[in-house]
Design goal:
By secondary structure, this protein is of the alpha/beta class. The chain has ten helices and 15 strands. The radius of gyration is 20 Å and the shape is globular. It starts with a strand and ends with a strand.
Length: 321
């Protein structure tokens, strides 16, 4: 089978297309025939060697995949060859024609969801759900601002928040991105390059009280200003950051405001089950609709890693083996 292998940490050219024997499942495992693999920013951090947890070399990148179960180890219940499934963030080796997963790391993929869409679920939708509900404590009727709402996590957050009765304000840096965010259900859409957009966002909330929740994708740029746009007892959930930032703690004190970080890998097994039960329901009833920006051949993994870090996201990039 073909797969992408990283033998030394470095730039996108560290991603090499190679051949390897077909895998076999061990105890409690399945073999997944991968029809699509999702490309996430965290994949680029790991590849570069800058991520806190570095895999042993050589390794095959990727955790998000969707496809068909090809083989099941003896004793695995609830899964059979031919089942359509997608993987969660705990899986490894998605940039391949086949991958081995623990049976607990895959979830049913409804017939109305494509394999490319399935490959957009694990990290983006898992992160968005955990940010909104497990860490953010979002409640119906609250106002949420989603920074960078046209990317994979942003689109997921807009759809999830709208489905749960929140007032959703999304931002994007291009007109095409803003059109996408609007189409996904945001009540208000703003240009985060425009001067004073956070003040405009605050004015859109009831009595101008501010945001109850902000989903922050680039904390090193926005966090200091986010705090001034919060409502009393508001929360900023830090999903992403590419550097340090200076804040004024007084902006949290008068509001009893919180800054909460998250990494999806910290989710407990109970939280993971809850996340994917909720995602499964949303996929079945059509409330959740992953948006695919580009489908690229597996051999184009280096270009996909460049594209996923470029500004102006408009949905998810997936690799097709």
């Amino acid at each position: 089978m073909k797969l992408i292998r990283v033998s030394a940490f470095g730039g996108p050219d560290a991603l090499r297309l190679e051949e390897a024997p077909d895998p076999r499942p061990g105890s409690g495992q399945i073999v997944l025939r991968v029809h699509a693999a999702g490309v996430n920013p965290v994949d680029t951090y790991i590849r570069s060697g800058r991520y806190a947890a570095r895999p042993a070399l050589p390794y095959t990148p990727g955790s998000d995949a969707a496809g068909v179960v090809e083989a099941v180890a003896e004793g695995v219940a609830g899964l059979a060859a031919g089942d359509r499934v997608y993987t969660d963030h705990r899986a490894r080796g998605a940039y391949a024609e086949r991958m081995v997963c623990d049976a607990t790391q895959v979830h049913p993929l409804p017939e109305n969801v494509s394999f490319a869409q399935g490959a957009a679920l694990g990290v983006p939708y898992g992160t968005a759900y955990r940010a909104l509900f497990d860490r953010g404590g979002a409640r119906p009727g609250e106002a949420v601002l989603v920074h960078g709402a046209s990317g994979g996590v942003g689109v997921a957050a807009v759809q999830l928040a709208r489905a749960q009765g929140l007032t959703v304000i999304g931002t994007a840096g291009t007109e095409r991105g803003r059109e996408l965010v609007r189409a996904q259900g945001a009540h208000h859409v703003l240009d985060h390059h425009q001067e004073g957009y956070l003040e405009e966002a605050r004015a859109l909330t009831p009595q101008g009280r501010g945001m109850d929740l902000i989903i922050e994708m680039l904390a090193n740029v926005n966090l200091g200003r986010d705090l001034g746009a919060l409502a009393p007892r508001g929360r900023v959930i830090v999903v992403g950051s590419r550097g340090r930032v200076e804040i004024d703690p007084r902006d949290t004190m008068g509001r009893d405001a919180d800054i909460r970080g998250l990494i999806l890998g910290n989710a407990s097994p109970e939280e993971v089950r809850g996340i994917h039960a909720a995602l499964g329901a949303g996929l079945e009833n059509g409330a959740l609709r992953p948006i695919i920006a580009r489908e690229m051949p597996l051999a184009d993994a280096p270009r996909a890693h460049e594209a996923v870090m470029a500004p102006g996201a408009h949905g998810k990039i997936v690799l097709v083996p």
